[in-house]
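Lab channel / #folding
Pinned by the channel admin:
"Please post every new chain as: sequence first, then the structure tokens as a reply. Keep commentary short and put observations after the output so the thread stays searchable."

First post following the new format, from NK:
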Amino acid sequence: MGGEKKLSYNNLLDLDAAINIAYHSSSKENICTIVKHNIPCGGAIKKRQKDSYLKALAGDPLSAFGGIVAFNQKLTLETAKLLSKKFL
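Reply from TO:
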């Protein structure tokens, strides 16, 4: 629990927005959405979760810094390793 930051009220609003985007789709493919200040700054639907994350991040990597990321599927180890490299 070293350098972890607690979620702020704004983080919780972003989380709600990100979940609503990722989960309100009938797609069976992997959905990733990134939200910062209650505004989506990246989103993608791909066959592989890793690819959906990378495509969503490419949408606006600068704005994604410190943002909230949501997926419609259980996080894979491969994607988790990529997420750990960024401040999200």
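NK: Residues 34 and 40 are 6 Å apart (CA to CA).
TO: also worth noting, Residues 9-23 form the longest helix (15 residues).
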